[in-house]
Specification:
Helix content: 25-40%
CATH class: Alpha Beta
Oligomer: single chain
Number of domains: 1
Radius of gyration: 18 Å
CATH superfamily: Alpha/Beta hydrolase fold, catalytic domain
Strand content: 25-35%
Number of helices: 10
Length: 307
């Protein structure tokens, strides 16, 4: 695999460009991007395809101190910059000293700027053409580790929707590289999953999700028209896979707070943790307190012990 670094730090100017570029996106109602962090936009060649990822590093007193890394995978139709705005992770990284990486998928369909991932059964052109997204993420991690002070024992992976599906696929094929994963509105849509080691897993999903149904099954017609039809694994089946993989108790400890029901599976092997959060009435969007009565970003940072 040939890698080629082509774009270096763009500084505050790129921050302004990203903000302007997202002005018309629905995610713009969410958290804003902090201008305090350092930013690099990176291009690399993976199998003859130019791939892109954004890195945000906090202002730290000691740049040689190894930092944890959070990789955030956007959903189909999105991109790294929109995921940054929707999640608000960059502002938290400035405060709590961790690196955030926002990779970009490749062209999903005929609409310019709509990107997606090859995550098994979904989505769009990357899946049909068997784009090597696993190879891209692996090479990207190698480059991030080579160019930044990284604590390799604390690399975390989160993904929304199609990005959540890729998160599951990466846990199967690159599981040894991640300390824990979080999947929001995704599904375990891979035919073979042989995660090499148990790992901590956070699953967040809404009961009113029509794109990736909570109980599994086909996506809705509107989404299928954009990215093709596919079959989704249910949250229950995804949970059962990780409960067995992590050797947890069959019966969880269940708590309810507002719209969120948390199933916490106990006594998992190797100190791993399995939590499944069901949002009553939650739709296919990034969960926020003001829209779904639950703050997914805050929960993910707490689960990864980054906040």
């Amino acid at each position: 695999m040939h890698l080629h670094r082509r774009v270096a730090a763009l500084g505050a100017l790129l921050v302004l460009v990203l903000l302007a570029g997202c002005a018309s996106e629905p995610e713009d109602s969410g958290p804003t991007i902090s201008a305090a962090s350092n930013v690099t936009l990176n291009l690399m060649d993976v199998g003859g395809v130019t791939r892109t990822y954004l890195v945000r590093t906090p202002e730290v007193d000691n740049p040689e101190r190894p930092l944890p890394v959070l990789v955030m995978l956007h959903g189909a139709g999105g991109d790294g910059a929109r995921a940054e705005v929707a999640t608000g992770f960059t502002g938290d990284a400035d405060i709590d000293d961790f690196i955030v990486v926002y990779p970009y998928g490749t062209q999903a369909a005929d609409v310019p700027g709509e990107l997606s991932w090859n995550a098994g059964a979904c989505c769009g052109a990357p899946q049909r053409e068997q784009r090597d997204d696993v190879g891209f993420i692996s090479a990207m991690l190698d480059e991030v580790v080579a160019q930044h002070p990284v604590d390799e024992s604390r690399i975390y992976l989160a993904g929304f929707s199609n990005g959540g599906m890729l998160t599951y696929r990466l846990s199967c094929e690159l599981g040894e590289r991640f300390a824990a994963i979080a999947v929001i509105a995704g599904a375990l849509n891979v035919t073979v999953c042989e995660a090499p080691v148990p790992m901590s897993v956070l699953i967040i999903h809404g009961t009113a999700d029509l794109t990736v149904p909570y109980t599994g099954g086909e996506t809705n017609e509107r989404t299928a028209a954009r990215f093709g039809q596919w079959e989704n694994v249910s949250v229950a089946d995804s949970t059962a896979f990780w409960r067995d993989r992590d050797g947890c108790d069959d019966k969880p400890v269940t708590t309810v707070e507002g719209t969120a029901t948390t199933d916490d599976y106990q006594d998992c092997v190797d100190d791993t943790v399995l939590e499944v959060i069901t949002i009553a009435g939650g739709t296919h969007s990034w969960p926020r307190e003001e829209t779904q009565g639950f703050d997914a970003s805050a929960k993910i940072l707490s689960f990864f012990q980054l906040g």
